[in-house]
């Protein structure tokens, strides 16, 4: 546009500029206009970065013309948004799951067709879940410094896998917003967020309180009388302005109700810990179901132990196991590759999250408390991986059978009386024990209030 200018740009005299200077001035004017001609797009999650599968996600998208020239207007051809769940696997051990994208349609790459809305371009892994793409804005003209705000609302499916960052399999969620100006290429903004999974949330019979209120006994009123009474009650509610209409049950209320049913069952369980040399202690735990963010508590009783215990270690561990049909044959994999294994096989990976150690040589009774981190993933099972939780115990006990604590002390007579000295070294051995526990999700509002992250994201087209 500016390189074809044939008029002279003078400096106050009749002598025109040289052709080289004219090209430099024209290029400077063009570059300045391109820098000023920008549309800034900001997107922010309204409630935070953590959601539960089944609830609605709301994202605010803001379009702003940053040009200060009063005559410069910017046109946005279209903007679309979509949710994607990407699955990334360790290909040496796990076969990637099938993508939910139609195989009959060949999606163009960003280099071959830069104007196509292809949100999975340049993404690692395969897309295992995606929502229907929604056009949030189309053919909009923005004046200088004008701001246009739209809301993107969509529901996360109940069957969506949770966000999980494992060693063999990873699930990650992103909101992909694509935007294009006339004559330009499509640019994308990706907003990560977290999804928690709670089984039973999609079954309304679990938490629908109205089902019990609508059922009547055989001796109750007839259907016609019940219909009339319901109509009379409805009319009464409409006539009374001080009675508010009952709001529907929200997804978070349903989730709180299910979590309360799961975690409020206090069933005391006791376990006798022993080995081939004798009885060590009794371990008691109030329950085995905990929400993320809660404290796991337990007590030890060493009063009746016949095998002296020096110390104990308790570790909260998660164990991911790959399904049989998604395992890569070891004969076809690289034999020189490093395998990820801490369990019984290379298809099982164990991760420790928190640990507690305590010496109990002269302890009769004690207790422990482990906090479940808010950043961990609850137990779940998908097509290719299953995640379970357990408490791993390690007891360091005296290795010599039939030896009591008193026999290991040395006695000395002093002026103040008899002095007992603990042994400087003891022959010990370690035994381990695993207690399965169940970790479930929690209210996402609790996670959002404790874990902070980048909520607002922006880019320029």
Explain this structure.
- With 461 residues, the chain is mainly beta.
- Helices cover 14% and strands 40% of the residues.
- It has six helices and 23 strands.
- It has helices at 19-36, 210-214, 223-239, 251-263, 405-408, 444-450, and strands at residues 39-45, 50-52, 56-65, 74-89, 126-130, 134-142, 147-155, 164-165, 169-180, 187-196, 269-275, 278-285, 289-291, 295-301, 309-322, 348-359, 365-371, 380-381, 385-398, 410-414, 417-421, 428-440, 456-460.
- Strands 2, 4, 5, 6, 8, 9 and 10 form a seven-stranded mixed β-sheet that branches. Strands 13, 15, 16, 18, 19 and 22 form a six-stranded mixed β-sheet that branches. A four-stranded antiparallel β-sheet has the order 7-3-1-23, with no helix packed on it.
- Strand 11 (269-275) and strand 12 form a beta hairpin.
- It is elongated, with a radius of gyration of 33 Å.
- Residues 1-14, 102-112, 209-238 and 331-344 have low confidence and may be disordered.
